[in-house]
Amino acid sequence: MTFPNSKFVVVTGTDTGVGKTVATAALLVALGERGLSVAVAKPVQTGIATGEPTDLEEVARLTGSTAIHEFTRLTPPLAPVAAARIDKVDLPPLDTYVDGIREIEADVVLIEGAGGLLVHLDGGERTILDLATDLEADVVVVGSEGLGSLNHFALTVKVLGQAGIEPVLVIGSCAAEPDLASISNLTDLPQVTGLPTTGRIPAAAGVLPIGDFRAQAPSWFTFT
């Protein structure tokens, strides 16, 4: 398949903790290998108080890229609306993110969401799906390979289809020795969603040295 078809690519997850950040980093490398300039944007980063590296810091560590753009930063490791409530701040309207992302100079802008597709990004109950729609973006859906993933992928693909968006599907963390459910899901996922699996990221990808990560990442995708 040809990818991307838009300057903007929203990377969302079927859930939290499915490998979305590592997949974003791998996409940055894979697209960069094709001669494209690639930037990454994060509309809302929560969990600043944990002391753990932020998502964009992880992208920078894995890829060496400095073309990263972070907008709202919130303290608790919660969904954006809940984190903003605890921090006692107002989230900006979604249009603020849309306008800021449109100003980024790059051939492709990868936009990493927060959790899943319908997570609210502002106080007006607008979501990552709304962000993708407003930007006329391609969408990459990252999910796990294990038990329950078929339903999570199918629900996300269905909602995107209702918005007229056909996403790219990526498995965010593939075990070196997958269990029976994972093997079965890889076979059944195209039938359940009507879409091929376009990317498979190894489970250990996030701990690779930068040189190994950059060398291997393009081979994890089958798009052209």
Automatic annotation (TrEMBL):
Its EC number is 6.3.3.3. Its cofactor is Mg(2+). The keyword Magnesium applies. ATP binds at residues 17-22, 55, 112-115, 173-174. It is found in: Cytoplasm. Pfam families: AAA_26. Pathway: Cofactor biosynthesis; biotin biosynthesis; biotin from 7,8-diaminononanoate: step 1/2. Gene3D superfamilies: P-loop containing nucleotide triphosphate hydrolases (3.40.50.300). Catalyzes a mechanistically unusual reaction, the ATP-dependent insertion of CO2 between the N7 and N8 nitrogen atoms of 7,8-diaminopelargonic acid (DAPA, also called 7,8-diammoniononanoate) to form a ureido ring. This is ATP-dependent dethiobiotin synthetase BioD. It comes from Aeromicrobium panaciterrae. The gene is bioD.
